[in-house]
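Quick look at the format.
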Amino acid sequence: MKKMLAMILTGTMVFSLTACGSNPAGSTQTSGESGTKKDTTAAEKPAADDKAEESAPSGPVTLNVTTTFAGEDTNAANYQDAIAAWQDETGNKINDASGSSTETFKARVISDFEMGSEPDVLFYFNGVDSNPFVEAGKVVSIDEIRQTYPDYATNMKDGMLGASPADGKNYSVPVNGYWEGLFVNKAVCEAAGVEIPGPDTTWDQFMEICQKVKDAGYTPIAASFAEIPHYWFEFCIYNYLTPATHNVVPGSVDDEHGKAWVDGIADMKVLYENGFLPENTLSATDGETFQLFVDGKAAFLIDGSWKVGGIEGATDDIENFTVTYVPGKNNRKTTDIIGGLSSGWYITRKAWDDPEKQKTCVEFISYMTSDEMVSTFASVSATALKNGTQVDESQLSTLAVDGLNFVKGATGMSSAVQDQVTQEQRVPVFNGMPDIVTGKKDIADAVQELLDLVAAGQQ
């Protein structure tokens, strides 16, 4: 049951995915044969397959793999099951160096590429976070891979593969998408005598709810402004924009988007000043504040759809938790959400140029992105699959079903604007959040420093 529950909704249902065949790399399939290879004679193989045969490994291969399927990620267990099965089937081995998707993890990945110690296969973000190694030519484009393996990722819609902002080419094969919402501990809200926020709850009303929760002796919002301030950063800025305008990095601190960033961060400062955050929010880890929420000491938590599995695994009373919309204000409707397809599987140039590893990398990613495997990881989530996915709601937890209804009721969606900014460029705002909310750093100055780093990176 837990395994099935951990599959759910790491993305949005706002995409319509139509049917078409699934063809893992190097295989030919007929309808209904997803994940099963059909024998072909050497004479029937295209020239590209002949070239691929030349690089076939002579024995078992060990791949160094890094992913974000770790910690409380919904698919951490699914990933471990998948690589165990692949190793048993092929005799190959995976050296796994996966980690939770924190700013520290992102910095480690970039550092590995800079030091020449990058993995063979990487599951990572396909936005600006990938720019450093894309621009350095350290990952291989899907077009180049298809010159040798023409069936690579052909079960996916090319238009949804997630083109790199660095050059517009596709480098990664996505698995599932995501959404972000407001998770709620029902027992805390009941003890504080407040209604759970709904699709019509405004930001001002939410502030009143938070005050009542605080007055009742609970922490209103579980959040680490020391380690992960970015969910509140995203939605507080979103409150001054719309789904059509949110995903744009400001040109200056004085333009429409720059002012939205300053005003949104100012609202984060108000949350801190009002005492709506944990007392140790400026030093606590994300894990510590999550535990505060699960243990019934905090009412609300903004996080991504992957957190559903984390909550399922952390409690025996899953019915005590639900997910709802982050209250909005101005032109942003409360039901306008953050979501999209933001990550995928990469093959590094180092592995591609290794005759012993190239074909194995292709086969491993083809296995991890088959229709069957993506359905396991994504369930009802947004995917790039031509066939789409199916789900049996009777097998889902109440929190998972609430997540489905949350997505169905969304009126608009924007991808996260922070994905347009590199980890290094975020430092003045994200790392500087403790100084910002305590008044030691001027908000406009911090935003301007971030924008200066963005501008420098474009030169």
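Next, a different chain entirely:
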Amino acid sequence: MTLRTPAHIENRTYDEIQIGDSASLTRTLKPEDIQLFAVMSGDVNPAHVDPEYARSSEFREVIAHGMWGGALISTVLGTQFPGPGTIYVDQTLHFSRPVTIGDTITVTVTATRKFDHNDHILFDCVCRNQDGLEVIRGTAEVLAPAEKIRRPRVELPEVSMVDRTTRYRHLLSLVKDLPPIPTAVAHPCDSPSLRGAVESAEAGLIVPILVGPAERIRAVARAEGIDLATYEIVDAPHSHAAAAMAVALARSGRVEALMKGSLHTDELMGEVVAAGSGLRTERRISHVFLMAVATYPRPLLITDAAINIEPTLEDKADIVQNAIDLALALGIEEPKVAILSAIETVTPRLRSTIEAAALCKMADRGQIRGGILDGPLAFDNAVSLIAAKTKGIRSAVAGRADILVVPDLESGNMLAKQLEYLADALPAGVVLGARVPIVLTSRADPPETRTASTASPR
């Protein structure tokens, strides 16, 4: 049965309240609750808002502000019992244990004493978590309302926490002290690709060599007001030739990275994987999306959503290792890797669950190194502590994933595009496993995405 929120709020007057009367409220702590409380209060104690710091703290994870629980007590007193017209007089609180993301807190206030000379009431206040353990205990003294009040419940506006660029600024800061790397930009013949290359150069990330039809590149620059005086242009008659020339520059050692311009992905990757003239190594080539999602507290790596259509178990081992290596390069210590499937149990009817279990065992045996693996995990269990706790999943990865390994390209591509277009995420894309990293973005991506992508392989 679903409990409906009452359309009105109604108080209980001083005369209506008896000693022993009580009221309760239950809330589950979400990541956005912590963020919103920090924004509202200005309390940016790293124990609450910095997951990296929190991992090294006494509690090993982000905890709620203590007064988040105190605010719930105030909510009960002000909206339920006694309700509208109540005036706070005094409050004492003792904090017994921390509240972590996914914990469900039940607040109970009980009338323990009445003062007839001034209509004050003393309440015992207790907050307990889903295990029945006491989190907060205290007392509250209020001036109870003397008149009956019944009002329509005010509908509060939706609050959205959007900070899309902070994680990208953090990504750029990771490489700010490194020298720019020579990069062949294949066929930068439209505004986003040319501007992305130039902005990456201006950010000190790359030294671009622009490979493509020289006059066409200059025409785009003139139309966009871009000064190309300091950039080398290698003339190539068309996109296929530009891809081949960019790969040749990497093979010769003139450049240390490739960057896709306004050509099709398979044009560039066809030259990268070409036998004899390409950039293949013994490791499987794979793609990683680095996503800055406004509703997720850390960068999220998704692989593989662009190169490997139906990877085998052996392919997936390389795909996982490539992503772990990138995460480590980005400063993510011991990245948490969620191997995704539709469910979190192993069943022969879903190949992805069998392969997820095998990948985890390969990590146990040292065949995959540098990260913590768990799977199979459904998407909600991988990114939501609340979902994981609800399903009883105990895991170092569940709800805290840094890397999402998808079963195949179709599911990965849809996931990445959904996050980009429906969750307002900003993506960066890079191909790993070749002789040099390859910045691989969609032709529709803005210059900001291309600039952020050039930081990923460094």
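The chain has three domains: 8-152, 162-280, 284-433.

See the schema section for token definitions.
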